[in-house]
Amino acid sequence: MVVSGGKAAFRAKKHAGKRNPPEAAERPGLAARQCAVRLLGAVIEKKTSLDGLTDNQHGHPHYLALDDRDRALVRAILGAALRNRGTIDALLAQLLDRPLPENAVALKALLHVAAAQILYLDIPDHSAVDLAVTAANDDPRNRRYAGLVNAVLRRLSRDKDKLSTSTPNAPAWFAETLVEAYGAEKAAAILAMHAVEPPVDLTVKSDPQGWAERLGGIVLPNGTVRLARLEGPLTELPGFAEGEWWVQDAAASLPARLFGDIAGKRVADLCAAPGGKTAQLALAGADVTAVEISANRLARLNANLERLKLKAHTVEANLMQYQPEEKFDAVLLDAPCSSTGTVRRHPDVPWTKSPEDIAKLAALQAQFLARTVELVRPGGIIVFSNCSLDPSEGEAVARSALANPALQAFPVAEEEFPGLHGLITPEGFLRSTPQDFPNPDPRLAGMDGFFAARFRRTSA
Ligand SMILES: C[S@@+](CC[C@H](N)C(=O)[O-])C[C@H]1O[C@@H](n2cnc3c(N)ncnc32)[C@H](O)[C@@H]1O
């Protein structure tokens, strides 16, 4: 499918030097679209994390200038644009009679933001198109392409039900990593899950069935209460203010369970914030020390524990230098990672991370794990986990760690955790992917990709 919009664009009237026609500045919804374009550019070109850009305190100034409704719209647009980036790119390419200039990054972001609305959001196509054209005219970099923007987006709106593509919604390196790790079929299924907005998972202090009924959710095999997407703010749900539950993906709740009965044991959680696993360990009756390098993140952990009325010793420290008075009975190392297991929740991840980042993170994890061993008493248990789908950050780190004579494998057996059928590998590792915990209702299906390995400290 070809359009001649490109030619029209170059005939578009130029307004060099003029900015912000007064009517543009006042157009309802325009600021949100312009902000979405700017933020998409920051994610793709500068590899900036979307969470940081849309943080309600420290986010991008253009985002902070918007009201709550427009912020939600920006998040929805960017979620759709990033989840479906491969598809949007391929469909736009079908509508252009020649590729966009390499350096037209602002134009590309503008087209993607509008296409995300036309293809995936419940927004009238004509407003998405009109606002994109207004935004193009309002931006000196895009003004000469206003005609192209108009033509391409109108054609997209008209032909969207006829257009199709099999392009994966992932950068090539990420799609290839998944194929190598999981095979073509499973990799395709994982990528398909990445395009779906995930449900909200809650770890409840008690009575999962009761909370599921109260909140209109379901109980998963591991006890997580799962809700389909929320209409209102999470903080207004029953039980939030009372500290009866916290948000935690079903997969993220599994590593802390691998310790078994931990009541009364001295346990360190070495990469602790925001504290989902610290809370689990404290709830299970452990005497928990939560170690975290970031003061801001530790403050969040403390606030979370306070809301949940759970207790832990919290320490701001780099685990590489942390010197406890006594070694621990058990240590959880939930290490920093590429987060490629959380793409459903963080669709910017594949576009902001690279194979080089993954190699660096895997090396850091190996270093952290070696240090962890020194903090556990002989006979004590170590659980190493992270939310990467990449075996070089999971299985490979765990296998190499066994070269350390102070570590012994302590494989997880499926019988220990009957609800986790299919998630335990032949080596006794825990490995989940977004394809796990399926459900006929896609709004209730899937889980984050997680890895966990369990070890015992020897007396070496
Ligand atoms: C994957 S997150 C942990 C999530 C947490 N376990 C939970 O369940 O809520 C990794 C954390 O490790 C922290 N971290 C990174 N390097 C660290 C270090 N050298 N010492 C201690 N904490 C570190 C990061 O600031 C981040 O909060």
UniProtKB/TrEMBL annotation:
CDD domains: AdoMet_MTases. One of its GO terms (biological process) is RNA methylation. It holds the Pfam family Methyltr_RsmB-F. InterPro entries: MeTrfase_RsmB-F_NOP2_cat, MeTrfase_RsmB-F_NOP2_dom, NusB-like_sf, NusB_RsmB_TIM44, RCMT, SAM-dependent_MTases_sf. S-adenosyl-L-methionine binds at residues 271-277, 292, 334. Residues 291-318 form a coiled coil. This is MFS transporter.
